[in-house]
């Protein structure tokens, strides 16, 4: 939660003290002070903070003058769960300001103005980023990590194991083939899903560029992860038994259905290392928030590092033998 103080007066200080009290008692949110309203608004748009409280200039003077003092709450309404929670908590803070323990000599009533950054977002649109991510993961499970296991079960792998291709080249080739399938799936699902949900941002050239980057990095991260999990498995029935567990373990903590901030601490720890979390956040920023490329750079960096690390672990574990 960002707090922009453009007043620095007595009653502006009381608002920040009220925030600190809420933070210390219930740990509902962590206030971060800003001195630039534009920067706070952009951080809300890019997902760095969940909301921004704007304390306008002359707020304290308007309180003394009994001239309708107001503060503003800027919320990211692409996530209705978080925005409604913030509005509820801020309404409580505003009510506390209006009802002090000691009745002041000057009557004041502070009003809260809620500013939503985006138009109303239907639940179908809200589920679109998670649906794209899940479809790409299913494509990877079928055509990526499990492909080599099926080849071994049918004896097809003997054909390319007798070639002079090195182990590293084989690993890169298998992962590249699986990633290409996931990229094609991501492109189709993103296009069709956006049109069905009425998301018009896919027609922006900058958004298209960001979506291509997210689809490619997500495909690589998912494929290398599945290849690492399947690199030493021989029985083709094992990965099929793992699919349900992996879907539950990776999809639900990602924030695609419910915000990560509402999870218990142990589930938030899983979400921080889950590649699904960064894929969902990136697609949500591009499709629902119309954010720029700066908003998805951390997601793409994490997915790229995740792909490199898992691939580096998979290469020495791969057995180039029958």
Short structural summary:
This protein is α/β, with parallel strands linked by helices and 322 residues long. The protein is 63% helix and 7% strand.
Spell out the blueprint of helices and strands.
Layout: E1 2-5, H1 10-26, E2 32-34, H2 37-45, E3 51-55, H3 59-65, E4 70-75, H4 80-98, E5 111-116, H5 123-154, H6 157-161, H7 167-197, H8 205-230, H9 237-251, H10 265-273, H11 275-287, H12 297-317
Parallel strand pairs: 1-2, 1-3, 4-5
Antiparallel strand pairs: 3-4
**pLDDT average, as an integer?**
78
Order of helices and strands: EHEHEHEHEHHHHHHHH
Overall outline: elongated
Query: What structural class should be given to the helix and strand makeup?
Result: alpha/beta
Task: Characterise the protein shown here.
By secondary structure, this protein is α/β, with parallel strands linked by helices. The chain folds into two domains: 2-116, abc type-2 transporter like fold (3-Layer(aba) Sandwich); 123-317, no CATH class. The chain is 63% helix and 7% strand. It contains twelve helices and five strands. The protein has helices spanning 10-26, 37-45, 59-65, 80-98, 123-154, 157-161, 167-197, 205-230, 237-251, 265-273, 275-287, 297-317; strands spanning 2-5, 32-34, 51-55, 70-75, 111-116. It has a five-stranded mixed beta sheet, with helices on both faces. Strand 4, helix 4 (80-98) and strand 5 form a beta-alpha-beta unit. Helix 1 packs across helix 4, helix 5 (123-154) runs antiparallel to helix 7 and helix 5 (123-154) packs across helix 11 (275-287). It is elongated and about 85 Å long.
